[in-house]
Amino acid sequence: MHALMSTPRRSAMPPTAPPRARASVGLARRLSGQMDRPLWPGRWASALLALSCALTGAITISPAQAAQLAVGASLNTVPTTLVDSLGTLSLSPSQFLVPVLAQSADDLAEWQFDLRFDADVATPVDVGGLYFSTYQADFGIGAISQITGSGFLLDGRLDDVSGYFDPSVSGDGVIAYVLFQYLAGHDGQDPGVQVDDPAPQALPEPSTLGLVCAAALLGTWQARRRVRPRPLSHIAHESCQP
Questions:
Q1: What pLDDT is stored for residue 140 in this prediction?
Q2: Beta bridge partners of 82
Q3: Could you tell me which residues are beta bridge partners of residue 164?
Q4: What pLDDT shows up at residue 42?
Q5: pLDDT tens by residue, 50-100
Q6: Whole-angstrom Cα distance, residue 173 to residue 14?
Q7: In angstroms, rounded to a whole number, what is the distance separating the alpha carbons of residues 166 and 214?
Q8: CA 214/CA 57 separation, integer angstroms
Q9: If you average pLDDT over every residue of the chain, what do you get?
Q10: Regarding beta strands 194-195 and 134-137, do their DSSP bridges make them parallel or antiparallel, or are they unpaired?
Q11: Is 40 left (phi over 0), alpha (psi -120 to 50) or beta?
Q12: Cα dist. 72→141, 163, 223, 230 in Å?
């Protein structure tokens, strides 16, 4: 009798990868997982950093200073408290000056204001001054206002006139003068000039250390997207375990 020889069936399962290949695949998967894993800094380190920045801000950043602003009576002559650096200001009969007053100022350093007026009666005018229609003022104690912005002339508005005092001032005084001119046929009429925002806030100057703390906090927040892979030897050792 002939012996019947059976042909072994091929298994439908894929061949098993050798141990070294399995370790390589596991290593790649673990590295991929480490790349996607967010990194969160220690809770104590973050808390201490936030606390130090809060204390730094409380100590080194001065609070906002406020002053009530208003316009004074129009002037037909140049007052002694107006500072004309170029010495060229001379008023014509159709021109007048509007003083902007700071009342009850408390350690006022930086300031800003907007003026509203009747554009059918008068308008700010530039006659060759250093700051166009805006002029510096002596606050009354020898503190001269420094102009950083002469404003933007719009329809019935002069926006964003700004400046500062160094050192800061307190009390009542003039912070700036604005030169106006009547339109033809409207001399002597009420131009309706008034301060649009009567209580501006001075901008506090952040300290360098405060800025450093802010940058550090931002870096802490962004750190969760950084990659900190575990040692390759440690991952490979775990991957080769049965």
A1: 86
A2: 137
A3: 110, 146
A4: 52
A5: 544 454 443 333 444 578 999 999 999 999 999 999 998 999 999 999 999
A6: 92
A7: 27
A8: 10
A9: 74
A10: unpaired
A11: beta
A12: 19, 18, 55, 72
- Residue 220 makes CB contacts below 8 A (sequence gap 6+) with 41, 46, 49
Query: Which pLDDT does position 18 carry in this prediction?
Result: 53
With vertex at residue 146, the alpha carbon angle to CA 150 and CA 139, rounded to the nearest 5 degrees, is 110
Q: According to the 3-state scheme, what is the secondary structure of the chain? A: CCCCCCCCCCCCCCCCCCHHHHHHHHHHHHHHHHHHCCCCCCHHHHHHHHHHHHHHHHHHCCCCCECEEEECCCECCCCCCEECCCCCCCCCCCEEEEEEEEEEEEEEEEEEEEEECCCCCEEECCCCCCECCEEEEECCCCCECEEEEEEEEECCEEEEEEEEEEEEEEEEEEEEEEEEEECCCCCCCCCCCEECCCCCECCCCCCHHHHHHHHHHHHHHHHHHCCCCCCHHHHHHHHCCC
In one letter, which amino acid is 176?
A
Amino acid at 237: H
Give me the pLDDT at residue 66, please. Answer: 73
Is the Cβ–Cβ distance between 112 and 178 less than 8 Å? no
DSSP letter assigned to residue 81: T
pLDDT surpasses 70 at 218: no
Give the mean model confidence (pLDDT) for residues 205-221: 49
- Least Cα distance to 135 among 193, 104, 186, 180 occurs for 180
Residue 112 has φ and ψ, to the nearest 5°, of -155, 145
Residue bearing tokens 């004309």: 84
Residue type for 133, please?
S
